[in-house]
Amino acid sequence: xxxxxxxxxxxxxxxxxxFKAFFGAEPKLKPGQTLAVRFFDSRQGxxxxxxxxxxxxxxxxxxxxxxxxxxxxxxxxxxRYYTRSLLIHETGHQFHFLSRTDxxxxxTAWYTEGVVEHLAMHSWDGEVLKLGVxxxxxEDYAAKALEGLESGKSSLASMAEGAxxxxxxxxxxxxxxxxxxxxxxxxFEKAAGEFDRGGANSKQVFRSSIGDPAFFAPRFLAWLRTAxxxxxxxxxxWEMRAPGVYMGEGKGVYSVARVKxxxxxxxxxxxxxxxxxxxGGLLLDFKDAGDFAVGLVDASFGVAVxxxxxxxxxxxxxxxxxxxxxxxxxxxxxxxxxxxxxxSAGGLALGPFDFPGGALGLAVHDCxxxxxxxxxxxxxxxxPAETPPRNKLPDGVKKG
Length: 400
Hints:
The protein is α+β, with helices and mostly antiparallel strands. Helices cover about 30% and strands about 30% of the residues. It is built from ten helices and 17 strands. It has helices at about 1-25, 45-50, 80-100, 110-120, 140-150, 155-160, 165-180, 185-195, 200-210, 215-225; strands spanning about 35-40, 65, 70-75, 120-125, 130, 230-235, 240, 245-260, 260-270, 280-290, 290-300, 300-310, 310-320, 330-335, 340-345, 350-355, 360-380.
């Protein structure tokens, strides 16, 4: 569709200077020349399109950059955010290869994939794009990387020797370029140069350019616990549009996103749509996908607290939003206290309700809504953050 193609073009235009800043170079193009990207509506179209160009579509993939045709191929994914992430991922490969490696794959897979997986985690509000941020994603690589390290299924030492671990690679790249107050970025750039020239052994480059994996393992783990995505998507489709700004959509159904861990309070401003029916508000309790409660406001400014259990919706309380609060933004809040959870919309308070589950979050029903100024507090987080080890970085790292 034309609007979708135009949006993708704006995303790529906004990504270019950020790619250039990250890689320190850009593809050398002739006047009027552009990079080639082919987008398909379905996997079948993607396969046929690649075959028409003499390429074989890889299995279990949604996109591919072909060095031989210098073209990116991808097809639509289950959500807008994931489709956009895939677009950034594959064009990131294209930009990387054409600007730094003479169109060859770097010598180490965890680095090759890690840089674009890091960049593909983004926020986009239709105008402003930010790459390499802690957002709200279906993949949630931060959580997967943390689970892998804590369970022993993955390790920094194994990755340093060349093992491909996408979540771990993405988050370790982010740690190197953003963590430790930026003092590791020069080490990353040195390693990147070695990998981009090709033929370098991953373990040797890791140790000579970055350092001993055993030294960095506890520091990285401590940082990773502080770099987790704050929300978990219970139902699609959700995304972070900017810091404190989230959009959710449920087509014909409820869709909720919950703050990870037990939450004490949450506040948000619901941006009232210009027209059309809409229902949206806050998640007030969650046991499982068939047992949860929401506090909603609708297009007529009715307010209700609803509970789904055993396939039946029950209205626990209903009222009307005060006249003075029926503006372009409705202030929402939920707080846990004596007696249970209280829900407030536009200054109207309902409850408390006996919701012991500890879950709070955002909710929409059969519409798309934007929530601004989203803040929350938690008495218990998914994994207590640990103070990074105080051992000094090895010699050779200069601050600045």
